[in-house]
Every structure is written in C-alpha cells, then in structure tokens.
Automatic annotation (TrEMBL):
Domain Ketoreductase, chain residue ranges per copy: 4-193
Protein name in the entry: 3-oxoacyl-[acyl-carrier protein] reductase
Family to which this protein belongs: Belongs to the short-chain dehydrogenases/reductases (SDR) family.
PANTHER family: 3-OXOACYL-[ACYL-CARRIER-PROTEIN] REDUCTASE, CHLOROPLASTIC, SHORT-CHAIN DEHYDROGENASES/REDUCTASES FAMILY MEMBER
Source superkingdom: Bacteria
Any single GO BP term: fatty acid elongation
GO molecular function, one term: oxidoreductase activity, acting on the CH-OH group of donors, NAD or NADP as acceptor
InterPro entries linked to this entry: KR_dom, NAD(P)-bd_dom_sf, SDR_fam
Length: 242
C-alpha cells in the first residue's frame, strides 16, 4: 500500500483516527477530513503522512473542494473511508425531526457525497477502494436509545451495495465495516450500567478497540481484498453472528 492516497472522514478521534494512523503505518498518505480543526491540526503535526482537511461532509461544496485539493496534491485517490458519523440519543417518540435530519445528513448524505465525487476519479484510474463504516445497529435496530442512528447505518449499507454494483466493472471495490461496542468517545457516553449490559451481551466479554476496526479497514483497502465487494464485515466480538 506504499504511497497510496487515502481520504478518511471523521478522522480526528476514535475509529477515524485509528484508521488514518493505520493507513499511514501501511505506507499511505492520508487526507484527514473533519470539522474539528484544533484536533485536526494536532493530528497533522503528530504524523507527517497526514494532512488535515476541514470539511463538513454534509456540505457538497466542502466535499468537492476536498476531493479537488487531494487531486491537485497527489493526482489520484486510491482509498476512501467514510467514517464521519453522529448520534442523537432520544427515544423514537421524543426525537426531534431536526435531530433525525442531522443524523442522516452526516451519516448518509456525507457518505453519498464523497462516494459521488470520488467515483469519477476511481473510474478513470480503473482502481480504488471505498470502505464505509456502518454499525451493528443497521442489522439489529436501535439498541442505545438513538432511533435515527440504526436507520442511517442501514441506509449506508444499501449505499455500499449500490456503489459496489455500479463500480465493480471499473475494478473498484466498495465494502462496509460494521462495528459494535468500540471504546470511543461515543461509547464513553454510556452509563456504567449500560456498559456492563453491553459487555455481558458480547461473547468475548470486552469492548473492542479502535485499532481492531482499523485493521479490518486496512485489510479491505489492501490488494488481498481485491475479490471482495458489496460485503459488510462485522467487528463486534461475536455479538451478532450472521
């Protein structure tokens, strides 16, 4: 994967940061996209193979500008990881319409926009890897009082399979990774009681680590995964076996 060019969204914390760092460890140069400029600049300073790009993934002008800037710098984009995501914790009865819309704007529209703008690049190259970070909630439904989150990730899974079919003839693979119970800022919001309940339901009896999700992404981005497309890879400690 030496000198391959990757774009990672939601890249300054948690899974996104772990993915960006893992890709650089495997020889890639990474455009790390996020709205958090302070953390982004810090990440950039810590890793010379990462360049921060401020980007609101729900804004098409921002997305187009990032893709254009990466092409101006490197002339190609080999890997796209759509990791940016948000959650709003309310019950189905209580959730506000604006919260629902905000979740879909980032989790679905953001992934779509990056897929849309990277597609012509990868088609010209006749190669590329797109990996979308989904969730076990796409398959099980909401399990953490966040009714917009699971549906948004289910939509992302459908998006993954749609682009996988569209781009296969161009040598581009499109896959998803569906984590559960990873030690991130998002899971840190759980109460201690909720944490115990989640761990008890996991056969491996622990939380996952961001680096374990990143390892799955690196595999799907590698040449070894060239015959895999349209797949959603579970990283959940055995909580869901399908």
């Amino acid at each position: 994967m030496t000198e391959r060019i990757a774009v990672v969204t939601g890249a300054v914390t948690g899974i996104g940061r772990a993915v960006a760092e893992a890709l650089t460890q495997n020889g890639c140069r990474v455009a790390a996209c996020d709205v958090d400029e302070a953390r982004g600049r810090q990440l950039e300073q810590e890793n010379p193979r990462i360049r921060f790009r401020k980007c609101d993934v729900s804004n098409e002008n921002d997305v187009a500008a990032v893709v254009q800037a990466v092409l101006e710098d490197h002339g190609r984009i080999d890997i796209l990881v759509n990791n940016a995501g948000i959650i709003r914790r309310r019950t189905g009865e209580e959730i506000r319409t604006e919260d629902w819309d905000a979740v879909f704007a980032v989790n679905v529209r953001g992934a779509f926009l990056f897929c849309k703008h990277v597609t012509p690049v990868m088609k010209r190259q006749r190669s590329g890897r797109i990996i979308n970070i989904s969730s076990i909630a796409a398959k099980l439904g909401d399990i953490t009082s966040a009714p917009g989150y699971g549906p948004s990730k289910a939509a992302m899974d459908a998006l993954t399979k749609t682009f996988a079919r569209e781009l296969a003839e161009y040598g581009v693979t499109v896959n998803g990774v569906a984590p559960h119970a990873i030690r991130t800022e998002m899971s840190a919001q759980w109460s201690e009681e909720k944490r115990r309940e989640v761990i008890e339901a996991i056969p491996l009896k622990r939380l996952g680590e961001p680096r374990e999700v990143a390892a799955a992404v690196v595999f799907l981005a590698s040449e070894d995964a060239g015959f895999i497309t349209g797949e959603i890879l579970d990283v959940n400690g055995g909580c869901l076996m399908d």
